[in-house]
Design a protein that fits this description.
The protein is α+β, with helices and mostly antiparallel strands. It contains 3 helices and 6 strands, in the order αββββααββ. A hairpin with a 2-residue loop joins β2 and β3. The protein binds protoporphyrin IX containing FE (HEM).
Length: 141
């Protein structure tokens, strides 16, 4: 990405797929629904796992691999949900992430983790990290 800033938009899509900021969307069934042969009873709270959908091998080749050059990037990205409640801030979120990443790659190309890798916590709703320590050294201007 530092060598080829043109990859930034694809990196944003792939990172949102691989370690999404949102893992699921909640819904309540108003009536019985049969989905792929499974009955979802009416009157129940559901958590629809977009986290799982984004690792679906039927949709993405080698889904457990982070690959910012993948040939099958998410098109209508599941991380922003679907239907009438699909994220209203999708375009803004993508622009913010693209601009932020591009600025970091340009201004601090030697930025690196200070310590071990962090774990993104949470399998439902909004996910987060407890802290992200980084450092930069001589490679930066
Ligand atoms: C990477 C960043 C973001 C992700 C992954 C994300 C994800 C989502 C998801 C999955 C939903 C659907 C929830 C559901 O169907 O129950 C949603 C809804 C929504 N998002 Fe985002 N979002 C992001 C950033 C933003 C930003 C920056 C804004 C506004 C500035 C925003 C505003 C909204 C609003 C207003 C809704 C509700 C839409 C509705 O119910 O009709 N989001 N978002």
């Amino acid at each position: 990405m530092c060598r080829d800033p043109g990859l930034v938009p694809r990196a944003v899509l792939e990172c949102l797929r691989y370690e999404p900021a949102v893992a699921s969307v909640p819904r309540v069934t108003l009536e019985d629904i049969v989905l792929d042969g499974t009955l979802l009873p009416g009157g129940r709270a559901l958590s629809l796992s977009t986290l799982s959908a984004m690792r679906d091998p039927a949709l993405y080749s080698d889904p457990d691999r982070l690959d910012i050059r993948r040939a099958d990037p998410p098109r209508r990205h599941p991380v922003f949900g679907g239907g009438v409640h699909r994220c209203l801030g999708e375009a803004l979120a993508k622009v913010e992430l693209e601009e932020g990443l591009a600025a970091l790659a340009r201004r601090l190309p030697a930025l690196e983790l200070d310590g071990g890798p962090v774990t993104v916590q949470g399998a439902f709703g909004i996910r987060s990290v407890h802290g992200l320590r980084v450092r930069w050294g001589r490679g930066n201007g």
